[in-house]
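Predict the 3D structure for this chain.
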Amino acid sequence: MADGAMTATFLAVIGGASLLAVTARRLHPTDRLPSLEGWALADRSLGPVWTWLLLGGTIFTAYTFTAVPGLAYGNGAAAFFAVPYTVIVCPLAFVLLSRLWTVARRHGYVTVADFVRGRYGSPPLALVVALTGILATMPYLALQLLGIRAVLTAGGVYPQGAAGDLVMVALFAGLAIATYRHGLRAPAVISALKAVAVFVSLTVVCWLVLERLGGPGAVFEGAARRLGGTDVAHSPLLLSPEQQPAYATLALGSTLALLMYPHVLTAGFAADGPRTLRKVSVALPAWTGLLALFGFLGVAALAAGVQAPRGGAEAAVPMLVDRLMPGPLAGLVFAAITVGALVPAAVMSIAAATCFVRNVYVEYIHPTATPKRQVRIAKAVSLTAKVGAVAFVFGLRDQDAINLQLLGGVWILQIFPAVAVGLFTGRLHPRALLAGWGVGMVAGTFMVVREGFSSVVALGSGPWEIYAGLVALLLNLTVVVAGTAVLERLGVPRGADATDLPPRLTVGRGPETGANNP
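Done. Predicted structure below.
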């Protein structure tokens, strides 16, 4: 049960986040008329520090900070696939985000589907890219609320019954209002508090855990014994040979999928130039260090003998914090993770709303909508997305959101050929890309559902398993390449390329000028 000091600290941090959200309008104020670019991308004006805060705060969500240590608590080293993939994604972001930003800024693209529309001249392909992004984002948004509830319940801060539901609604209401009024500037400002709270609290928690449990050696030895081994080298704490293919393919597939999510691209598009994005990509591993420490806390919870509820391993670290930490520090940790959910949740709702307005509403419903009307519709859709996420959490089982998010990761990976490959070559035929997308979506969904909503599937008849999303992507690419060859041979026409990117794969310097404002 939460004590007074814990509750006071928690409320103080949450109150600070709300106050910061109110001041979001002062972040790069502008006298421009309302526009979707201004509301959803903060007028593409964020410098290196703000972009690092926002992009890191968007990528590393509250559910990441609970699911990874929960997996480490239950399965040992397999959970740490998230660490290499968030390191590998940095050089990929260095190349892809800066190049994509340059094209988007030059042509006024606000979403990645805008880029696909311009690159291939194919409205249907742009539509499926936008809808896939929305479909993959919505359960991810709901998971942020589940992460908050899991943390607060384990810490005794979340009341049972209707009172707890009101706490959740109140936490989300301030975010919803600030995002509605100020757009991306609200989560950008809150991301500064998230960074300070998470970095400070996690550093102190790890120091106290090491001091009380006898150092890292004692932690790993204790965890190894809890998992049934005699020592670290002879325990399930380490990867077995059979687990290595799943570990490697999960890391690779997650890397390729991460930069396809609309909320990550929205945070990237808000930067003030490609040089800023390259600087931020170099500095992003600092956030990865946080993730590794959270994973270590999952091992520490195992060593400390924390008994998480059955099927609720994500509560292990909050229970460890509640057991070992003084009330004020525990309140700071719980508040940091809560704020950690508010930032990505806000960006996700903005990204989903922007995709809907630009690539569905304007393209198919109201082509003559004014910029002011586009902003008004985007605000309404963003608010609806948040309300829908709250209703989803209250109305369905937690496992339903987790299952849909697992599918979302497989789905979003299927737009990689159209987006990432399309940045370097325009040779792929849009109809082949549509066919590849369809094959990847069907195959990926079938594999995940067949395995009982597991993201890894058996490789042949052996004991090895691999990531289903990567298998679906390989099928997708095979269909795309073969389909392009057939369609070109048949002379099937393609849409006009409206971008200034080269039509073929080149190894020379891309179109970016290197300046922050080309």
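Confidence is low (pLDDT under 50) at residues 510-518.
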